[in-house]
């Protein structure tokens, strides 16, 4: 029997691709502790501080000029500020000052923006604890406070306020979401496994979400179903509208009570089926249709889908927007009809233009405030840039 020597098989292994190191970028110079809160006049304020934003180039930013991105994506500051910030090096790409405001942003770029940050105040109302155990905390979120740090809000957020109360190393894990302007129950996981279990139950719809809203006018009785699809028409402003080409959305509404205005000589009632009030014809103006919607209703809202601003958009479409909604109940943005029954795109450009001025050159107050004749003091509580510069 003959034997032969076989050369061992040598497999050539390819060297792994060497990726370039991440660009050197500026980091926030400090993480102040305790948090720089100031509680006064019923508000939670934050002392101004230096802060650095770092963000990777988003897909929709690729191939666009740097100034154009800030002009169209961010509304916190005017165009002249962003132009000066780029030219002075407050806004850089990959840690390096760019030669021109027209510099092109590419995939993989890191955009850095260092500024003196002034957060808007929020209510000083404490975050109520409804239930707490070893796995989770059920809280009563106050209206006006965002859940996560985002946009102009950082330390004035539910996550950071709870961290400030329980210790720097504690990491609250919200399992459901509420809009900044909405108050209500939230589930906060104390550790990742508990948060995952709670989130899975919510996603599987084992947990039902219900809301109660105060809307303008006399809402119809019975179950009112709105199935208007919803589309985001301005990512920059966070504006959503009813659109046939939008995402599927479905909400069931039911009136719980109607309260006519006192000057209608009609008794205020909490009954689901109160007597029909006599319209206040002395205040009716055909050019301001919302004026004919006297009084207000308390409405139970059951969303069967989870679109952004779903309840606010659907109630506006039905002609009964939430009475203190600074966006969807704002006549200076949506016109005299407040966009009731409007699902067209013909007025989008004018609506976006008007909304972009809110909080800058105009206060973002809801139309209900005009109807109720609020005092000058209450008007001053609305946010508006005053043009003053920080020392």
Give an account of the 3D structure.
The protein is α+β, with helices and mostly antiparallel strands and 391 residues long. It is built from nine helices and 16 strands. The chain has helices spanning 66-73, 79-88, 158-166, 192-203, 310-317, 331-334, 348-357, 367-371, 376-380, and strands at 37-40, 43-46, 49-56, 91-93, 110-117, 122-123, 128-132, 136-141, 173-174, 184-189, 211-216, 223-226, 230-234, 239-242, 251-259, 296-303. The strands form five sheets. It has a four-stranded antiparallel beta sheet with strand order 7-8-10-9. A hairpin with a 3-residue loop joins β7 (128-132) and β8 (136-141). α1 (66-73) packs antiparallel against α2.
